[in-house]
Design brief:
The structure is a single chain. The chain has 5 helices and 5 strands; from the N terminus they run E-H-E-H-E-H-E-E-H-H. By secondary structure, the protein is α/β, with parallel strands linked by helices. It has one domain: Glutaredoxin. The N and C termini lie far apart (about 40 Å). The model has no long low-confidence stretch (mean pLDDT about 95).
Amino acid sequence: MATVDITQDTLGQTIAENDIVLLDWWAEWCGPCKQFAPTYEAASEKHEDIVFGKVDTEDQQMLAASAQISSIPTLMAFREGILVFSQPGALPASALDQVIDAVKGLDMDEVRAEVAKQSQDAPNA
């Protein structure tokens, strides 16, 4: 599967309807983003069971702001609708493979339990 462009209108549905979604937050003027793009594209060809989305932070400024993107490229991973990884910086192929393997290997019952615990522990705003 090749990468797909993600917009404000498609983000929620994409995350909700797919088990694993990776998002590459990038911009045309960003050198590290351009260096990371072929690595990300190659991974998308290798892992057809994952949606590889790209968010153009220049075109989708409101979306980038709501996701609190302060540095690009930033890679995010969602599993079963839960954000399980977020890190700025271009990754080499081996590190991207490690992230993908880790996300695939997550025990989602444990993740959901931890999310629920954090929600209970959070002070009411």
